[in-house]
Design goal:
By secondary structure, this protein is mainly alpha-helical. Helices cover 53% and strands 11% of the residues. The chain contains two helices and two strands, in the order ββαα. Strand 1 and strand 2 form a beta hairpin. The longest helix has 23 residues. The relative contact order is 0.07.
C-alpha cells in the first residue's frame, strides 16, 4: 500500500501513541548528535526528542512572556 504525502502513521511505544518521522541532518550535526548519544548511552532518537522537547518548552515560555496579561 502506497502512502500519500503527509500521511502520518502512529505506532505504540511504551503504551503511548507516537508518530515516526524521517529527518535529514547535515553530516556534522548528525555526527555531533551521535556523539552526544554515545556519551549519554542513549539512542540518537532520544537525543533528538529531548532537544525538540526543550526547544518547544523554551518557545512556549517565550510566548507566555511576550503575551500581555489582561
Amino acid at each position: 500500500m502506497k502512502r500519500k504525502k503527509g500521511d502520518r502513521r502512529s505506532t505504540k511505544a511504551s503504551g503511548a501513541s507516537t508518530i515516526r518521522a524521517s529527518i535529514t541532518f547535515p553530516p556534522n550535526l548528525y555526527e555531533t548528535l551521535e556523539e552526544i548519544a554515545k556519551q549519554k548511552k542513549v539512542s540518537l532518537a532520544w537525543v533528538v526528542r529531548d532537544a525538540a522537547e526543550q526547544y518547544v518548552a523554551d518557545r512556549t515560555a517565550e510566548t507566555k512572556e511576550a503575551t500581555p496579561r489582561i
